[in-house]
Structures are given as C-alpha cells and as structure tokens.
C-alpha cells in the first residue's frame, strides 16, 4: 500500500505554515488561549499530513473532525474581537486572566505609532508609563478577524481535501479487494473426472 500519488498535494504544508505564522504573533502578544489552540492545531495538521503520506485514513479522519473544532474556535475569536454576545476585546479571557496583555497588533499594526508618557505625578506610579497608540491604518481587532477568517477558509478547504483523500484510499482498497488481493487461498480443490471415464469405471 503506497497511497495515492495524486493525494500528495502541498495543501497540508500550507495549512501548517498558516498556523505557525499565527502562533508567532500570538506568542508576541502573550495570548495564552490561542497559543494552546494553535499548538493543538499544528499537531493535528502534522498527523493529517502523516496519514496522507503513510496511507493512514484514520489519521485523516481525525484531522477532518478537528477542522470542525478549529472552525468553531475561530468563530469564537471573531465574536470576541467584534464584541458579539457580551464579549469584550479588552477582557483578559484569552490570557486566562493572568496578565493584561492584548493582541500584538494593538501596538504594532500598520501605521501605528507607540508613545509612552511617564506617570510621575501619581503616587505609586512613578516607575510606570502611560502608553498610547495613534495613527493605526487598521484597528487591531480587524486584523485578528481577518486572521481567523483566513483560518476558517483553510479549514473548510482542508475538510474537503481530507474527504477526498479518504475516498481515494477507500476506492483503492475496494479495487484491490476486487481483483483478489485479499481473497483467502481455497481450502479445498475438487477434481472432476470426465464423464466418459466415470462411465467406463461403472461398466467394469
């Protein structure tokens, strides 16, 4: 079983690169929940890629099931940054309430200028600075929404790809079984004698 050559497409690698790119920016923003989700996603993508190369349909099915979970997670991220259903992009939900970090894009987006002003006039905050970000060409929440939308698109294509690969593997197994590849060796063999020979034995 060598698998189907037509299934060795570059799509799984593209999906993995997209997940790695998002993981880097989530690490820079200390977004712990997305970091964990991205890590699991990378593992499942590797598993699906291994299943495609090594002819393991079960691994590909696991990847297909995970794509549904991944789509759901990214829909939640979109709702989080668009503040749908009572969610707030300023909450500490994505950092597990252990830090007040926000998305890396909130201070490093396209056109953003970061300014720090010392807070020396307030008691107890002499060593702190007030950070303001101005001039952003695109608000960071929309960048995060575009990231999640792109991940959803890749996941949907990945689901179709996984279904295609599994169907091809199944067809190959069925065709191999049809030509007798899995048929057991006959347990017995019947030697039929010619009718005229049987007639001679009966006459004698």
Automatic annotation (TrEMBL):
Coiled coil: none annotated. It is a multi-pass membrane protein. It is found in: Cell membrane. It holds the Pfam family NKAIN. The chain crosses the membrane at residues 32-53, 60-84, 150-169. Keywords: Cell membrane, Membrane, Transmembrane, Transmembrane helix. GO terms for biological process: regulation of sodium ion transport. GO terms for cellular component: plasma membrane. InterPro entries: Na/K-Atpase_Interacting (IPR008516). Belongs to the NKAIN family. This is Sodium/potassium-transporting ATPase subunit beta-1-interacting protein. It comes from Regulus satrapa (Golden-crowned kinglet). The lineage of its organism: Eukaryota, Metazoa, Chordata, Craniata, Vertebrata.
């Amino acid at each position: 079983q060598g698998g189907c050559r037509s299934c060795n497409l570059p799509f799984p690698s593209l999906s993995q690169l997209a997940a790695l790119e998002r993981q880097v920016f989530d690490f820079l923003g200390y977004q712990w929940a997305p970091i964990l989700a991205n890590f699991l996603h990378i593992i499942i993508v590797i598993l699906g890629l291994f299943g495609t190369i090594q002819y393991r349909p079960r691994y590909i099915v696991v990847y297909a099931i995970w794509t549904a979970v991944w789509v759901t997670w990214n829909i939640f991220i979109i709702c989080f940054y668009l503040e749908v259903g009572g969610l707030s992009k300023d909450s500490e939900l994505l950092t597990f309430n252990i830090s007040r970090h926000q998305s890396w894009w909130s201070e490093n987006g396209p056109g953003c200028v970061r300014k720090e002003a010392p807070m020396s006039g307030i008691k107890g905050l002499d060593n702190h600075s007030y950070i303001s970000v101005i001039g952003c060409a695109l608000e960071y929440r929309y960048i995060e929404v575009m990231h999640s939308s792109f991940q959803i698109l890749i996941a949907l294509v990945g689901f179709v790809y996984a279904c295609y690969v599994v169907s091809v593997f199944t067809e190959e197994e069925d065709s191999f079984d049809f030509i007798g590849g899995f048929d057991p060796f006959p347990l017995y063999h019947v030697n039929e004698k010619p009718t005229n020979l049987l007639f001679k034995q009966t006459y004698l």
